[in-house]
């Protein structure tokens, strides 16, 4: 009886081996036939077939399309501009936060966030310590955007402000100890240029303290209820030309053509938020015409910005000192934009506090 079983097993093994050999032979013949058929195609058709296969390989390499689940904020910018404080603000908002993740790991990290049942929003920091690898960032961002809804926040500040901050903290610049801080800052700007060029938001922190930076991040990145219009935050900023133009403005308007309340003695110490100053500026027909035309233009532009995926827009309004006219116009534009259903906020860079 055992001998019979042994013989049966031996026969079964031989049959299985024969079937495997036959299948391998058939597969080989199919491959050869496919190659032969491809070789028989005209040159133009063969080129199209090669392109088709290359496109398929590219699609497979790109991975799955952007999923509605999850959000990733890539926080970057100049050393000393406030990235550490900003990352803490994101952490307090419930973002899963990672500092200094290597560039080549970002696509994998984004995929993990997309698949996670626990992580809905994540924030990570990249900075100049990545060195020459930063030139690859635009291509990496393009790949990550196909996996996850991604925003790039670039923190910047004036050279003078950065030099002062390094002096106060007495810490060396990440670019090295061999160079002066000003030359290190210039070198860092050049190295970060590819990253800055693809940023959704460039935030100038020159005049921010830690609390103002946190408030700015909170106002923009707090959960917004999901309306498409609310995916765009509009910051209407007043400023004074005598103090320089804001570097992070997307649109800029000069309202120095309006009558100046500064020359009315009773208004000199007040601001554009005061009802008397507001009534004075509003009382001129050119003020109302400017507001109506600017509102119409913004209502035309904003849907197009949203369609292009823009998440943050800074509209700068400038007068001479940033105290009266620009403040009133900024507040009024903010009110009109909110009435139209957009998420808007007003800030006043140079207004006396």
Descriptive report:
The protein has 353 residues and is an alpha/beta fold. The chain folds into 2 domains: 71-223, 3-Layer(aba) Sandwich (Rossmann fold); 231-348, no CATH class. Helix content is 49%, strand content 15%. The protein contains 11 helices and 9 strands. A 5-stranded parallel sheet has the order 2-3-1-4-5, sandwiched between helices. It has a 4-stranded parallel sheet with strand order 7-8-6-9, with helices on one face. Helix 4 links the parallel strand 2 (96-98) and strand 3 (121-125). Helix 3 (83-92) packs across helix 8 (210-221) and helix 4 (106-115) packs parallel to helix 5. The longest helix is centred in the N-terminal third of the chain and has 39 residues, at 2-40. It is globular and about 60 Å long. Residues 1-9, 26-41, 59-65 and 224-229 have low confidence and may be disordered.
Number of separate strands? 9
Distance between the termini: 102 Å
Q: In CATH, what is the homologous superfamily of the largest domain?
A: P-loop containing nucleotide triphosphate hydrolases
Helical segment count:
11
Strand portion? 15-25%
Which sequence of SSEs, written as H and E, runs from N to C? HHEHEHEHEHHEHEEHHEHE
Rg, Cα atoms, Å:
30 Å
Uncertain regions spanning at least 5 consecutive residues: 1-9, 26-41, 59-65, 224-229
What structural class do the secondary elements suggest? alpha/beta
At the third CATH level, what is the topology name of the largest domain?
A: Rossmann fold
Level-2 CATH architecture of the largest domain = 3-Layer(aba) Sandwich
**What fraction, in percent, of the residue positions are helical?**
40-55%
Coarse morphology: globular
Q: How many domains is the backbone divided into? A: 2
Mean pLDDT figure? 82
């Amino acid at each position: 009886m055992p001998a019979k079983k042994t013989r049966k097993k031996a026969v079964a093994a031989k049959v299985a081996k024969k079937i495997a050999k036959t299948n391998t032979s058939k597969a080989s013949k199919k491959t050869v036939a496919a190659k032969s058929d491809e070789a028989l195609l005209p040159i133009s058709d063969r080129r199209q077939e090669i392109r088709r296969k290359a496109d398929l390989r590219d699609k497979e390499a790109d991975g799955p399309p952007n999923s509605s689940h999850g959000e990733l904020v890539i926080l970057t910018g100049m050393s000393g501009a406030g990235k550490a404080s900003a990352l803490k603000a994101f952490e307090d908002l419930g973002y899963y936060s990672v500092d200094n993740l290597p560039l080549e790991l970002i696509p994998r990290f984004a995929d993990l966030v997309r698949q996670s049942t626990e992580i809905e929003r994540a924030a990570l920091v990249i900075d100049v310590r990545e060195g020459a690898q930063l030139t690859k960032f635009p291509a990496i961002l393009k790949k990550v955007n196909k996996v996850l809804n991604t925003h790039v926040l670039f923190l910047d500040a004036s050279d003078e402000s950065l030099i002062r901050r390094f002096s106060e903290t007495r810490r060396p610049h990440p670019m090295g100890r061999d160079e002066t801080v000003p030359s290190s800052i210039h070198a860092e700007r050049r190295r970060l240029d590819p990253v800055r060029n693809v940023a959704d938001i460039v935030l100038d922190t020159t005049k921010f303290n830690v609390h103002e930076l946190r408030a700015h991040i909170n106002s923009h990145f707090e959960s917004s209820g999901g309306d498409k219009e609310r995916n765009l935050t509009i910051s209407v900023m007043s400023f004074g030309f005598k103090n320089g133009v804001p570097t992070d403005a997307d649109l800029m308007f000069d309202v120095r053509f309006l009558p100046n309340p500064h020359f009315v003695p009773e208004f000199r110490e007040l601001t554009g938020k005061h009802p008397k100053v507001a009534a004075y500026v509003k009382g001129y027909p050119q003020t109302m015409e400017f507001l109506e035309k600017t509102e119409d233009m913004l209502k035309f532009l904003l849907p197009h910005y949203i369609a292009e995926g823009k998440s943050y827009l800074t509209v700068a309004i400038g007068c001479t000192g940033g105290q009266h006219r620009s403040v009133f116009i900024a507040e009024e534009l903010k009110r009109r934009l909110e009435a139209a259903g957009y998420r808007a906020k007003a800030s006043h860079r140079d207004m006396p506090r």
